[in-house]
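Query structure, 102 tokens:
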């Protein structure tokens, strides 16, 4: 969860670095951040799939119904995080295109 809060600060850090880094270094930094975000996205996507599989298995078993509900809640949470990460990746890629165009 700590990483998630760091993701929120990421665009602000990039904006602060905008004037201090030469274009090439900024593009390299953006590439590194995109790679890290893609790794995190893959982690949360895998978690969502794993929890969805568990929930589908458990949802028709009375004794596991509450576990299934919890698993579906985790799936929803993970998918939301994946969407937020993708927005950040898109923003970084747009910034990278902007730097390469200039």
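Result returned for the query:
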């Amino acid at each position: 969860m700590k990483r998630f809060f760091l993701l929120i600060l990421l665009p602000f850090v990039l904006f602060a670095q905008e004037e201090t880094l030469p274009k090439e270094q900024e593009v390299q930094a953006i590439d590194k951040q995109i790679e890290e975000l893609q790794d995190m996205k893959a982690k949360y996507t895998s978690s969502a799939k794993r929890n969805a599989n568990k929930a589908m298995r458990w949802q028709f078993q009375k004794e596991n119904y509450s576990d299934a509900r919890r698993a579906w809640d985790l799936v929803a949470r993970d998918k939301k995080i994946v969407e937020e990460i993708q927005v950040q990746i898109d923003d970084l890629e747009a910034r990278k295109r902007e730097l390469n165009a200039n």
